[in-house]
Amino acid sequence: MAGSFGLFRQYERMALAALAIMAMLAFFVLPPFLQMGAGRGGPDPVAVEWKGGGLRESGLRRAVWQRKAMNQFLVTALAMSGQDPSRVRLPDDEADVVDTLVLAKEAEANGIVVSNDAINQFLKDWTNDLVKPQQFEQIVSAIGSRTGISQSDIFDAMRTALMARRVEMLLVGGLGFAGAPPGLRWDYFRRLEQGATVEAVPVVVERFIDKVPEPSEEALRKFFERFQDELPVARSADPGFKQPHRVRYDVLVAKADVFHDEEKAKITDEQVKAFYDERKATLYKAKTEESSTDGDAAAGDAKDADAESKQPADEGKAGDDKAGAATKDGASSTGRLRVRTVAFKQPSGDAGKDAGKDAETGAGTGADAAAATSAEAASADDGEFEPLDKVRDDIVERLTDEAVERRIGAIFDAVKTDVAKYGESLALWQVEGEGSGQAPTPPSVKAIAATQGLDGSTSDLVSASDAMAAGGVGGSFQFSVSREFGVRQQRWVDLMFGRNVPLLQTVTTRDIDGNRYLSWKTEDQPEFVPSFQTAREEVLRAWRIVEARPLARKAAEELVAEAKQGKTLAEVAAARGGLEVENVGPFTWLSRGTAPFGSAPELSQPNGLAMPGTEIMEAVFSLEAGQAAAAFNEPQTVCYAVRVVSLEPEEAQLRELFLAASQDPRRLETVAESDVREAYDRWVASVKEKHALAWQRDPRVAEFE
To answer: Of 91, 344, 382, 621, which has the fewest beta carbons less than 10 angstroms from its beta carbon?
Structure first.
């Protein structure tokens, strides 16, 4: 042993160098050799297949990276041309990347080719021909230096995407609204413009489950196996027995007005004066007759100035500072920065001469320049800005809001530190294992809340949909800034329920009312398929509901039959006893609600009908006044007997309105979008079936970077 050790000491440097080289070879060279010829069960298994091809895990990762690099290239080029880069982005999740590959193969099978000239023309159109070839090369070089993706990789991804897009456009062009026949246009118009008032008697399916015979154990097990991999969806008629991803979290809530009065009392006259002097040029310019007539421009500038002045001061990150500029409370409906082009004007000829003359004579230097500045400021104060007394209250509110933001930020920062320390202590305790003493005590949200004047709570194990439905932190969001996409709004549920989000990672968010939230995940339960025995009671109940639906429809049809004898449903219900009658409407088939003009309308959700779907709308608007029909709601938990009381406007008046609206078909085009989307989805499904697309595992969704 001594001899061997002495030999090692003699050649220590050479041995260590050889060992390092072997480690490098093992790290960089060995994995590719191990992956060569690997099958499904090897270190690089097949992730997805289609007729004549497929991708292993490494190939799929590279395809996703190519898409990401292409996105970054297009976004950077868009920004370089002076356009808003946050408005456009192709998805970069695995499913969309593979779908694009399959659609490109379909395009190739139909003789569609995208040449290099076509790609160059696309880039000209994309950037309004404002980005030069050298600039494109600079963008590619910058992306390549960070990701290792080459120019050919980016252009291959772009060629694939353009081929898929072209074959899509061939389909959509044939489905477009422009070629819709008059009868279809009339149907779309009625869905949007005609309102119905109905009587409705709900026949609840669950009331009939006792009349359903008991299933055999084999039948129940087959029913479970049929839906065991499906997650439950509230509006779906099919059950789902797979348990969704659930988390438990702690949350602290700082209400928007909790500290307002206390911080307002601290504002001094000196602070008000300093704020006025610093920001009067952007916030308090006096309104002139010219500016008041230019309504849109003045409103836009005031809105931007107001947003800029009310950034949150406590986030400590560029993203949060920029995000806070969106509104007074830092909230925004879009979460995007407004992009403006700036023109750098060159001095005119006379101005240039004057400047040169001043330079020669020494004018504008020293005391003269200071005097000129002072004179300008004095004249500005005389009438260019609103007087301080007039805007004092507004300044106090702004300073108060900033002080509240700073105070909440300081509290949250302290809690973040405590949570981080607890996480470190917990990790060390877990590493040391048994016998290392008692586990560290986690921060108490209730104690923190009581001390700091906040609200604090610990959730149950909840799914993302449950958390969103509960409101509060479930509907909150934060802003993040990235080099690729600028400022983006991220939902709290994505930050809390996203893949690989660690425990005890603090998340700061806010809601549209200005409330602030600090939350962290304490337990994570991934989605899973329970055993049949564990889920048996739930399976039995779902089976009974499905089997009881025909009984519920039969009962509703019996009510409809009586109503067809000249009775109202109210009269039928009174004669039978124990039935509820809802008077619903007027409501249209489709409505826009609060959606902006130009967006597709959605199925109306009138009060009095539980989760109505297409079946109810089709039944109601196929009837005339006084007629009745039976129809299920969307999840098929209630079958309604419905009788139309009135339709407004009447058909003659509606036709006149239809003819008048035919001059501007844009509103009807949005109504047709849902039908076009459904037809498109069916076509994509048929292409996947044609190419025998088969995933060997579930495709992963994209994550925020």
So the answer is: 344
